[in-house]
Amino acid sequence: MTKVSLIVAALVPKLGIGYKGQLPWALKEEMKYFRKVTTQTVDKSKKNAVIMGRKTWESIPARFRPLKDRVNVVLTRNVGAFSEKYADELATHGENVKIADSLKSALQSLDTKQIEEVFVIGGAELYNQVLKNDPELIERVFLTEVSAEKELEMDAFIELLEPWKRQEPHVWTAYLATKGLDAEFAQHNNEAGFRFSYQIYSPSRS
C-alpha cells in the first residue's frame, strides 16, 4: 500500500501544535514551505494528495478549499453527513476532493498512476491516530521544530515517540533538491519572535 508522510509544525520540546483549534503562530515562511513541499512534484504529470481530518477541512476558509493543486482527501467517521453538508463544494471540485472513513480506505481511493506523494496534514487527532495505529504506512515525518521567546498555551499535541529518528541535515536538503526547492529555503529561520527549523524524521528501522 502507498506510504504517507506527515507534515506538521510543533513547539518543542512537548510538540504542541495548537490551542483552541487554532495555530499558535502565523509564520509566512513556514506556510510557504508547507505549500511548496506538499504541492511540488518531481514528475510534472502527477499531483500530490493531502489527507486531513474533518475539523481541519472546516478550519480552512471556504474560499481556500480545496487546497490548490493537490488532491484533498477528508477523513470523517460519517461520510454520508459530510457528503450532504458539502454537496455543492464536492460537485464543484470533482476528483480534487475525496472522502474516506479511514487512512487505508483513503489510500485505496487514490490512483497511484496520478499521485506522486501523499501527505497527512492534521489535525492532532489524525496525526496521533496514524502514528499509533498505522506506523508501518509512514515513510517520513516533516517536522518544523518551533521555539518561542515567550511561553505559549497549548492544548493539542502530537506524540512522536520512538522509534523515530531525526535525520542529518543533508537528508532534508537532498529531498528538497529532488523538487528543485533546495535553494528556496534555509533550514534554520527566525520570524515574528519564533525560531524554527525544518527537520525530517524517519523510522529508526529504515
Task: Describe how the helices and strands are arranged.
Layout: E1 4-11, E2 16-18, H1 28-39, E3 47-53, H2 54-59, E4 70-75, H3 79-85, H4 87-93, E5 97-100, H5 103-108, E6 115-120, H6 124-133, E7 138-148, E8 156-157, E9 164-166, H7 169-178, E10 188-191, E11 194-203
Parallel strand pairs: 1-6, 1-7, 3-4, 3-6, 4-5
Antiparallel strand pairs: 2-8, 7-11, 9-11, 10-11
In this structure, how is the largest beta sheet organized? 9 strands, mixed
CATH topology: Dihydrofolate Reductase, subunit A
End-to-end distance: 17 Å
Give the CA-based shape.
globular
CATH class call: Alpha Beta
Count of β-strands: 11
Percentage beta strand: 25-35%
> Number of domains in the coordinates?
1
Order of helices and strands: EEHEHEHHEHEHEEEHEE
Q: State mean pLDDT (0 to 100 scale).
A: 93
Could you tell me the radius of gyration in angstroms? Answer: 17 Å
Total number of helices = 7
Oligomer: single chain
CATH architecture: 3-Layer(aba) Sandwich
**Corresponding CATH superfamily:** Dihydrofolate Reductase, subunit A
Spans of at least 5 consecutive residues with low confidence: none
Computed structural class: alpha/beta
Helical percent range?
A: 25-40%
Fold and architecture overview:
There is one protein chain. The chain has 206 residues and is α/β, with parallel strands linked by helices. It has a single domain, classed as Dihydrofolate Reductase, subunit A (3-Layer(aba) Sandwich), CATH 3.40.430. The protein is built from seven helices and eleven strands. The chain is globular.
